[in-house]
Amino acid sequence: NDDANFMHTVFMETLGRARDDFVIMAGDWNTVLDNTLDKMGGSPAHANRKTQDIINNIISDYGMSDVFRLTHDNERIFTHFNKKCNSASRLDFFLINDTLINFPVCSSDISHGFRSDHSYVSLIIQGTSITPGKGYWKLNNSHLLQDEFKSDIRDIISDTMNSSFDSYRGVWDTIKFKVKDYAIRFGKKLNKIRREEKSSIESEIERIKRIPDFMTDSRLRKQYFDNEIKLNSLIDQEVKGIITR
Q: What pTM was estimated for this model as a whole?
């Protein structure tokens, strides 16, 4: 919110309700904390200066920290890109109580924002490690949209049916076993291909984002947004796969 009074009220009410030292605040703050590190292009200072001062004062007075800046030093990475003004800003970030900084794992990062003009910001905090239990397998039904998968499954069923078995139950159990085994291998192969493609696009986006003042270069700007479209398409496929499953 661009209303500095509103922002101050939210801070005071939130911090007043906090009952322990573990405070985490996050959002699109519509301002930056540092005009030099968190802004590129446009005017030298962010327009929402009152809110900027309020947040920086809260950080100082209440022992809060911008965890991204603590873990990324002076890196200039942004979360919002304005095509019209050819500018970029880090408007989205986590503020956490300084007590959490001393946890074994405490870090924040910025990644591609799916179908949004803002990037995603993430926060990882880990106290004691937890060993996950064994999961269970479930067929990813989106594989049924792949011609290769359907063709190979037909061959598996046909080959099994042509084999010798003592009972229909034996045939059915063998088919289920072989289909599961193939589906797992097919899924791993498909995921590997998509991960590599996604990683390549993400790396290219990050490479461009780290070029000083890239938003002022029309060629680099086009490359950046073209790769964003490609990445959105891949993520869209992932989401559809999860929904189908």
A: 0.62
**CA 237, CA 166: separation in Å to the nearest integer?**
43
Q: Please, which residues bridge with residue 67 across strands?
A: none
Show the tokens assigned to 80: 């919002």
32/177 Cα distance (integer angstroms): 56
Q: What is the pLDDT of residues 141-188, one digit of tens each?
A: 888 888 999 999 999 999 998 888 778 888 899 999 999 999 999 989
3-state secondary structure of 78: coil
Long-range contacts of 231-236 (CB under 8 A, 24+ apart): 231/112, 231/198, 231/201, 231/202, 231/205, 232/114, 232/115, 234/194, 234/197, 234/198, 234/201, 235/112, 235/114, 235/198, 236/114
C-alpha 194/C-alpha 234 separation (Å) is 8
